[in-house]
Specification:
Chains A, B: Belongs to the class-II pyridoxal-phosphate-dependent aminotransferase family. The structure is a homodimer. By secondary structure, chain A is of the alpha/beta class. Chain A has 13 helices and twelve strands. At the A-B interface, α1, α2, α3, α5 and α9 of A face α1, α2, α3, α5 and α9 of B.
């Protein structure tokens, strides 16, 4: 038989073989060592609302049925909560899916896109995957540099500007007023993707009012963090109807898991649960800050469910991540300088924080 | 505030606002009438394996964790079953997701793609969504015309040829020998997407041996049909390692639901369940054939979990679908001529078949 190379597109041929993140399961396979503590992917250590769990259990009875491709019940509930129209909402299999959709809708080969140097790798993966040209702006003291981002967007005529607020991987945040000013200053052909995966953990001053019909803003939210449903893969975006209609032209209409739909809808009926999670996380963050100080490092103030701890240099950060992994503890660190002089640790439950603190102390003693 | 239209890509601007399928939930919303019998989307009426259900129930405890982005356990099990290497397998959120991935990998604007006129709308949706040029070959007596498909692929220099075997929406099938001949005859730059969503329902003679390293064939399988997990959104593709590696450059790595992963893996340990489903469906198909004959119509022989019934003309088919919907019964019909002179009915459980038969008899009496 003739062996012919499959005729991939030009773009695919040129792409590097990288993945945004190595999963903890792969680390287990690589090291042969089971992970006993998962604090590396900012998965919630506080579970899901009992209402959501019960709804998902019930929904298992209907697992043979495709989910509603219009996600109508969930969009209706979200529209009510956010004071927007359901035509301004799209549901996806998590923010990763929605980022791909947004990139596909706005980015063709050569299109300039602006973000911070060290921002969410999966966003960058999608931009590269559709041939976009990434332009980076350095963080300023662990924070996204809003003025420089807009300046860069103007300079390169960017079609997309990506900002996570609160930020990942630093945990820092900007006030709603600052973000509003950034939106005002956007060049006319530039759309802001405002990734608010961690917004539930942010102070009230960081909550920008939602304007569903703004043509230049796409808000992204998820059930993966405060709602504790990362494994279910469900999130949403709010944008003007014209943008949502464009998404509908290409999105995977039957892509969302039916059980996830049921769980997300039920979650929304349990705001107390989310409030309790946020309180518990806030308590944990204080502990992490004290722990970092005790070890001679500095916790970066965080408005998320994780804390980035500045340990001084990248080699030390790498050593800590590797040593913890050998002890069965999974954390991560940012991939690029200068953020990579930090480790990023998810806020766990009390017993998990204790296990982490003990392990981290051992590692710190060893590397001194 | 200045209202600027968002700067969509050229491709997005040109795309029509269509969706591949209207979900039954949307029909309920449109008609205000609840659907009491879902026999339109070829969802399994026979549920999931008890092992899968139990695995999914247990996996709910870990819903806060992302699924393994490498899907290693499932790929390992599938590699063993199919006698291929796990590097030759990719997992996706159902075949729809994998079709999008394959199209994205092989199709850029203007690239010719060949399929049958009236084949799976979601495949066509993805080809159009990436700017591909669809070339159609008419069905021949309700069957894909394999020789004409290859002929057309050669004529237009197609990069992809899509074939569902067994076929949807007709239910017809070709022998493995016929498909092997088609593969032999593929022009060198053309890749065959062999969609085997319904293969479990096909006779042994239709099961083409799997050759994992064939550079021109992508096999697609799903847990949505015989395994009864449509709502979980999980399926897989088998292709040569080079193609799978290309998929890895752009796929949504953390896109698959963790509970679906657990359910799919457990399903594989229960081949008896699938065998029982297939037997029950075969019994149901015989009933449908007798029912069609009684009503003066003809059931097209089917190797799937549904039956296409030739009712003579498109207006009659439309009338039947609409009238059944008014009675709370959801079925579908093909969208294009000449297939649209048929209705497509999923094989349900015995009591559901009885309900359908009664309703269909009433409708038939009315339209005579």
């Amino acid at each position: 038989m003739k062996r012919v190379h499959p005729p991939f597109t030009q773009l695919i041929k040129q792409l590097p073989a990288t993945v945004p993140f190595v999963p903890p399961e792969a680390l287990e396979r690589q090291t042969g060592q089971p992970i006993r503590l998962r604090l590396g992917a900012n998965e919630s250590d506080f579970g899901v609302s009992p209402l959501a769990k019960e709804a998902m259990r019930r929904a298992l009875k209907e697992v043979s049925w495709y989910g509603d491709s219009e996600n109508d019940a969930l969009r209706t509930a979200l529209a009510h909560i956010h004071g927007v129209r359901k035509e301004e909402i799209v549901i996806g299999s998590g923010i990763d899916d929605l980022l791909e959709l947004a990139v596909r809708t706005f980015v063709e080969p050569g299109v300039p896109v602006v973000t911070s140097l060290g921002s969410y790798p999966t966003f960058q993966f999608h931009v590269t995957g559709f041939g976009g040209q990434l332009h980076f702006v350095p963080y300023c003291e662990w924070k996204n540099d809003l003025e420089a981002l807009v300046e860069k967007a103007r300079e390169v005529d960017a079609r997309l500007l990506y900002l996570a607020n609160p930020d990942n991987p630093t945990g820092t945040w900007h006030s709603a007023d600052d973000v509003a000013r950034l939106i005002e200053a956007l060049p006319p052909r530039c759309v802001l993707i405002l990734d608010e995966a961690y917004i539930e953990f942010a102070p009230p001053s960081a909550h920008l009012p939602i304007q569903g019909d703004h043509p230049q803003v796409i808000r992204m939210r998820t059930f993966s963090k405060a709602y504790g449903m990362a494994g279910a893969r469900i999130g949403y975006a709010i944008a003007c109807e014209e943008t949502i209609s464009a998404f509908d032209k290409v999105r995977l209409h039957f892509g969302v898991n039916r059980i996830a739909q049921a769980g997300a809808l039920a979650s929304l009926q349990d705001p107390d649960f989310v409030r309790d999670v946020v309180n518990a996380v806030n308590e944990g963050k204080k502990e992490y800050e004290a722990m970092a100080e005790e070890l001679g490092w500095r916790a970066i103030p965080s408005a998320t469910n994780f804390v980035a701890i500045d340990v001084g240099d990248a080699d030390r950060a790498r050593r800590i991540v590797d040593d913890l992994l050998k002890m069965g503890i999974f954390i991560r660190m940012p991939g690029v300088s200068p953020l990579n002089r930090s480790i990023r640790v998810t806020v766990g439950k009390e017993e998990h924080r204790k296990q982490l603190a003990e392990a981290l102390k051992k590692v710190a003693d060893r590397i001194r």
